[in-house]
Design brief:
The protein has three helices and eleven strands. With 209 residues, it is of the alpha+beta class. The chain has one domain: Clam (outer membrane lipoprotein receptor (LolB), chain A), CATH 2.50.20. Strands 6-5-4-3-2-1-11-10-9-8-7 form an eleven-stranded antiparallel β-sheet, covered by helices on one side.
Length: 209
């Protein structure tokens, strides 16, 4: 059964790759990263975030703690600004900012669904799953750098390009950069990562506000 499941995964990966522009060498890196992350069921880490607002010409810096659990649970609990939250639990997406809570269904909201796919695919090492028209890979001293041009017909988010750094030491996500059409971008840098430990379900529970 396990062998059969693996064959299905490889078939789907090859089919998706054919629908996107990817060289054989780049596909080998994508598969290497994906296979290394299959065994990872959870991640906790500190994160630093920089959100560049093109229209204002300024950067907004924040930080906090990230919690991730397969297949579709992710939460950013902010320390600064304290009390802010971005939470994904399957199709339920919740954001808390300045004390105001907003809930959106990723199933019903195409933009949120696209954003969710980008975030979870990056954490899972599954770049083929985020809806890209073209993917290229390069190497730095410490990282594999994977750049995905997002296909707006497939992924309806406002994101046009995703640049992800995976650590060469363990092939886990280290830096995620998303770019929008107007020049705005967001960078998440993960630090002090801990893999495959049980995460209390409370971190994936909506804030009561």
């Amino acid at each position: 059964m396990k062998k059969f499941s693996l064959l299905i995964i490889l078939f789907l990966a090859c089919t998706l790759a054919q629908a996107q522009t990817i060289s054989d060498a780049d596909f080998a890196i994508l598969e290497k990263v994906n296979q290394a992350n299959i065994k990872n069921t959870s991640m906790t880490s500190d994160f630093d975030q920089v959100k560049h607002m093109a229209i204002l010409g300024e950067d907004i810096k924040s930080n906090g703690k990230l919690y991730y659990g397969k297949p579709e649970k992710m939460a950013l609990w902010y320390t600064d600004p304290a009390g802010d939250l971005m939470l994904i639990n399957e199709d339920r997406c919740i954001m808390v900012a300045s004390g105001k809570k907003r809930e959106v269904s990723a199933k019903a909201n195409a933009k949120m669904r696209g954003m969710k796919n980008i975030l979870t695919a990056s954490l899972q090492g599954g770049m083929l799953q985020m809806g890209a028209s073209k993917i290229t890979c390069s190497e730095e001293a410490k990282y594999y750098v994977i750049t995905a041009d997002i296909d707006s017909k497939v992924n309806k988010s406002n994101i046009k390009k995703v640049i992800v750094h995976y650590s060469k030491s363990d092939l886990t996500l280290s830096v995620l950069r998303t770019k929008e059409a107007d020049g705005s971008y967001t960078v998440y840098e993960l630090k002090n990562k801990v893999m495959n430990q049980t995460i209390d379900e409370k971190y994936f529970t909506p804030a009561k506000k």
